[in-house]
Amino acid sequence: MKNRSLSFWLFLTPTLIALALVVFIPVIEGLFYSFTDWDGLTFTKMVGFQNYITLFHDKAFINAFWFTVGFVIVTVIMLNVIGLGLALLVTQKFKGNNFLRTVFFMPNMIGGLILGFIWQFIFTQGFQALGNALHMHWLLNWLTNETTGFWGLVIVTVWQMSGYIMIIYIAYLQNIPNEIIEAAKIDGASAWQRFTKITFPMIAPAFTVCMFLTLSNGFKIYDQNLSLTNGGPYNSTQMLAMDIVNTAYNSANFSLSEAKAIVFFVIVAAISLLQVAYNRKREADLH
Amino acid sequence: MKTKSRTVIGIVGLLLGILWLFPFYLIVSNSFKTPKGIFASVLSLPHPSTTDNYVNSFQALHFIASLTNSLIITVCSVLVIILASSMAAYALQRNHSKLSSGLLLLFISAMLIPFQSVMIPLTANFGAVHFLNMWGLVVMYLGFDCSLSVFLYQGTLSSIPIAMDESAELEGASRWQIFTKVIFPMLSPITVTVAILNIIAIWNDYLLPSLVLPQAQYTIPLQMFNFFGEYTKQWHLALAGITISIIPVILFYLFAQKWIIKGVTDGAVK
């Protein structure tokens, strides 16, 4: 199709219009408003970097940032270890392995909002009952402080996303030619040697994919946060996405919320670009 | 030795499977209990059991209405995304110029922008032209979700030889006919992937529709959120509500599992 042909542009029109209306125009507006005293409807003056200076002294934002970073570090490690573990398990030959695959992936179909409600019941009622029955104190009063709120969010995320990460590892595990494994067996390699010397290096690309998926998903989590802890107690479990939404819709501080959202954008985009750069380099190294 | 290790693996798998399903057991079994029954024992099976919770929460959730809204919004958005993205990808892939690679880069860069960065101006603009409703939402989903879809279609199109287009052109087909009669049918495997990924994301979405939809058009997640606010600590009703609202998703999963797994893998790996 030629550039100037009418059909080229007609084919592109619907998506380009939607993209402009929904993403590009609003993000430019948002960037502009972050330098003003905008109240959601009008603004009276430009304030320069005032909103950006404010946000770096904003306790809620700083707290949300470090809470999110901690959450992301823990979940990236746990999701990859558990996801790979489950993938190795269900790719073994035993009765019921396909059924288990179905089970492990199932939570991923349920939306974050409802997942949070499900686990709110389990943490506050189920854990309480179990703790009382087994006399285990650490199972009592979950979600009433920052620590149990943090681990609550981690558990929900691990339960939800492990199956997803498992599916990706399975795709790579199935690409390993069977002959290599068989040949190693004949040469007398133990199961552990086969894993560290063959399987592990051959699924290295899967690590990159899963690392960055879990990394960028972790930063963007909102729904689970809202329905599980709603940021409480006292905003101690509020993550970045929620802090931005609440700054706008609860505190009606729209220009500050936009400034926070731009900083958030820079963080998330930097992670994604790092991934692209890393993948390019790895592919170049292979050739 | 061999059978022994296989048994051990089987037992580990069984235990993990039970651990994974245990939350579902707690939700479903307690949804059949009275408030007293839940208070007495969370872990036991319901005894005596009641179905009143279901009758009450079904009404409180306006389930028929919210299910219909969820269906209309998801189906319309996904159809629009499939058609518009495949068209755009076709135009971009069949045009080898700097312009088309620039446009593809534009689509990909849109994926970097998180929702929170556009949320307030977006809803203000759509509100100004009275488009904060389900049709406005369909346009928004096209804007947010077309990038990944165009990207996926683009990759598949590059494996369809241009000779297909040329021979149809020789027979006098127009560009639109070539696309709808020859090319689009060949894209069906990736269309399934695009459909699955978008169905899951749109069906479960909460934040965007909560900012856009009027109460009469509430989807299942929005109705759930309201419902939870009203019935805090009334777990017998809340759990029946949760169970009702996840039934459609679980049924869809069990029916379409093969395609879902393929779609999710494609979406992540490609």
From TrEMBL, chain A:
GO biological process terms, semicolon-separated: transmembrane transport
InterPro entries (alphabetical): ABC_transporter_permease, MetI-like, MetI-like_sf
CDD domains: TM_PBP2
Domain ABC transmembrane type-1: 65-275
Transmembrane segments: 7-28, 64-90, 102-122, 150-172, 198-219, 261-278
Keywords: Cell membrane, Membrane, Transmembrane, Transmembrane helix, Transport
Protein's cellular compartments: Cell membrane
Any single GO CC term annotated in Swiss-Prot or TrEMBL for this entry: plasma membrane
Membrane-topology descriptor: Multi-pass membrane protein
Family the entry assigns: Belongs to the binding-protein-dependent transport system permease family.
Descriptive protein name: Sugar ABC transporter permease
Automatic annotation (TrEMBL), chain B:
Gene3D superfamilies in the record: MetI-like
UniProt keyword terms in alphabetical order: Cell membrane, Membrane, Transmembrane, Transmembrane helix, Transport
Residue intervals passing through the bilayer: 7-28, 71-91, 103-122, 134-153, 182-203, 235-256
Compartments in which it is found: Cell membrane
Topology of this chain in the membrane: Multi-pass membrane protein
Domain of life: Bacteria
The name this protein goes by in its record: ABC transmembrane type-1 domain-containing protein
InterPro entries named among the record's database cross-references: MetI-like, MetI-like_sf
Keyword Transmembrane helix: yes
Family: Belongs to the binding-protein-dependent transport system permease family.
Boundaries of every ABC transmembrane type-1 domain copy: 67-256
One Pfam family named in its UniProt record: BPD_transp_1
